[in-house]
Amino acid sequence: MIEFISKAKFSGDGAGPAPLPEPTTVNFSSAQFSPGFSGSINTTKNAARIYAHGSTTLWSGFISGTEAKLTAPSDFGDNDGALQVAIDGADFSNAPRVGSVYTLFTGLAHATRFVEVRWVIQMADAPYIAASGNVLEVTGQPPTLETMNSQVTNGSNSATGFYSGALIPNASGYVPPLQAPAGTTYGSNVGSIKMKGAFSKLVVTVGGPRKVGVSKNGGVPSFYSVADETDGPVRAIVVPCDGSTATYNVWDGGNARNSGGHFVVAGGATLLDVGVRRRIHQFGDSITAGAGPGATGVNSEIMSVAAVFGFVGTTIGVNGQTIAGCKTMMDNSLPLLTVASTDVAILAIGGNSASGGIDATKKADYLACINKLKAKGYGKILCRGILPTPDGSDTRAIYNVELQSVVTTLADPNVIWIDTSTWIGYDTQDNTHPTAEGYRTLAGYAQPAYSAALGL
Where do the domains of the chain lie? Predict the structure, then answer.
């Protein structure tokens, strides 16, 4: 639940809070309302309409008042249960309607509320609002509307907004592109956004799992979450900020929808130049995917390490992944990733292939993974050794010798072996998979090792 605290207005004469003015009703235009959209929209199908898409479109904003009503027709006609609303982070519920007018809230005391609006999956590409004219009616003392219109979306690649993650096309005519879904085909695919501004808050739109990490100026990340829902339709998380000018790395927990989803970060201040724009992508198994007890991909150590370096990170891991499986996954995931020669890949694979030893076939597959990363265009490839057991009883040395020999034989200065034999003492609940705290320990090992390898 999100709690909003309003400051009382005092009369200045010692008599206590000034009374609220009489209620008035204000109509807000489509131009004022539409910057709150942070999911799939289509403005080309019909110039007079802005189309939403069932389960992948979210509108969110801050509405002050006692009642709010949205005019939201559909090509299917008006339907009970078509539009859902959530107030201040509570569960979504169906908005009651009269014709095409849906009541978002009513009969409440005047206050500022964080309002989320979405359409159910059955509405597909039929719902819309008018592209001009009034669409939102609010009664309040006085009524106000605030949207976070400085957005960085899936696929952004500019001086003021930078995204990293695998992308798939959206439905015809809808923007922005969708984040590729997590799973065995594309890996965990944790999306990451970098942005800068003097934000008092950020509004993050995600699918499931609904957990995000936030690092300010490369500092220790904080984590925010809301409860998941079946199939992970979009909703928002509000992240408080202190209003100072800062660079933020924000990353999600890996999109869980089968059809892909959105990861959008919006703020209420001007976007500024983010400076360094480099990606660091980690390919691997369950540890890369964030499968530890109480952890998700959002906890993976590479995300916070990327933020420290001023990069944006992405994890592309699969539970139980072998070297051969990683080779196949790359054929699916690499074409969906944007990569530049300044970007870095980390190959963190091998633990699930160690049974029976690392033979010639497994070494050939390992080399194939490296060559796929080289062909994609990564400037540096860091080959991370299999992690030792956290108690240090098994350094996996015999397996790492074989994997390191592949790197040594390749003799490419841009392909670098990362020795992990001293990376011990990380917390787990099964002697293999790090907990959230264990990932923080691994980040402490990874940061200096990667920094040295990259000359940072």
Answer: 24-147, 151-454
CATH for 151-454 is 3.40.50.1110
Sequence-ordered list of residues with C-beta below 8 angstroms from that of 413, at least 6 positions apart, any chain: none
Q: How large is the average pLDDT for residues 386-408? A: 95
User: Is the per-residue pLDDT at 197 higher than 50?
Assistant: yes
Whole-angstrom Cα distance, residue 200 to residue 267?
A: 8
Q: Is the pTM of this model over 0.85?
A: yes
* pLDDT (tens digit per residue) in 75-91: 999 999 999 999 999 99
CATH classification number, 24-147, choose in 1.20.210.10, 3.90.550.10, 2.60.120.260, 3.90.1720.10: 2.60.120.260
Model confidence band, residue 257 (pLDDT cutoffs 50, 70, 90): low
Q: How confident is the model at residue 20 (pLDDT cuts 50, 70, 90)?
A: confident
Give Cα 225 distance to the centre of its chain: 11
List Cβ neighbours of 245 (8 Å cut-off, separation of 6 or more). Answer: 196, 197, 198, 272
